[in-house]
Design goal:
Helices cover 31% and strands 25% of the residues. By secondary structure, it is of the alpha+beta class. Among the domains are: 3-45, no CATH class; 59-179, 2-Layer Sandwich (HIT family, subunit A). The longest helix has 21 residues, at 126-146.
Length: 280
């Protein structure tokens, strides 16, 4: 299942008094899509430049004054759902959901986690995550009840500006469409091709293979298995695979709490590595 080739790069390294060194580079092929990535383990040792804590504090404070999502501004500056929705804004615990002011689709909403303007990755508790995602599921249900053809639902989270967030206050983006995104279509098509070829579910097979090997198997939280990617598209990439759930809505009855527990643990792990931003 896991294909890779190894190349060798030779150079006179200034890190070793310009002695000849050889670095192995693995070219890995994603077992589902066939996409390739390159991995050089020596890169994990290179010097990294990160923002000092005081710099981050300045950025946070500078963005706080005019933040649309902070409690003193949210009710006045964010839109509401129209009359055909049962709620003007969806509220679950500390979370609040409302339409995107400048949407990219017919159904595009924002989910704000809480009143906190900034949270480090180790501060996202399972409950904080669960409240927001429960609100997301409620929004999707309300859309689907009125428009059953809208069956592709997405929750995207770009945390902090380096990850593409235009607003620093922690939030997710929700979209519901009649057609899948290009990336989702690729995964659906590749999963079907795998089933037609192998007669089994790729994601179940992946979990079993990774559990056997153990190299990238992180653990389980209930029905959710956590893995690192064999052929990652991003740094420190983690995958969550759900057993017994083939659509987001299934999490309402099976697995949401376990997913939020695992996600909270993953974010704590990122924080321990010094990671401040990520995409989901």
């Amino acid at each position: 299942m896991f294909e890779k080739t190894v190349q060798e790069a030779k150079l006179l390294s200034p890190l070793q008094d310009f002695k000849l060194v050889t670095q192995p580079i693995e070219v890995r092929k994603d077992p589902l899509t066939g996409r390739r990535c390159r991995i050089n383990l020596e890169r994990t040792k290179r010097t990294k430049q990160v923002a000092e804590a005081t710099e981050m504090e300045k950025i946070v404070e500078a963005s706080r004054a005019k933040c649309f999502f902070c409690s003193e501004n949210l009710e006045k500056t964010t839109p509401m759902f129209p009359e055909d929705f049962p709620e003007r804004r969806i509220k679950v615990g500390a979370a609040c959901l409302f339409p995107n002011l400048f949407p990219f689709g017919r159904f595009h909403a924002i989910g704000v986690f809480s009143e906190a303007h900034h949270l480090d990755l180790n501060q996202f508790s399972p409950k904080l995550l669960k409240d927001c995602f429960e609100g997301c599921l409620r929004y999707f249900e309300q859309v689907h009840e009125r428009h059953p053809e809208i069956k592709y639902w997405h929750i995207n989270w770009n945390h902090m500006p380096p990850a593409g967030a235009s607003i620093l206050h922690p939030h997710v983006q929700l979209t519901a469409d009649p057609e899948p995104t290009s990336r989702l279509q690729e995964l659906i098509g590749s999963s079907k091709s795998y089933f037609d070829r192998e007669g089994s579910n790729y994601w179940s097979d992946l979990v079993e293979e990774e559990k056997k090997g153990g190299e990238r198997f992180i653990g389980k939280t209930g029905p959710v298995t956590w893995l690192t990617s064999f052929a990652p598209e991003g740094n420190n990439e983690v995958i969550a695979v759900f057993a017994g759930a083939s659509a987001i809505i299934h999490l309402k009855k099976h697995g949401l709490e376990d997913f939020c527990d695992g996600l909270s643990r993953t974010l704590k792990g990122y924080h321990a590595l010094g990671v401040q931003s990520f995409n989901m």
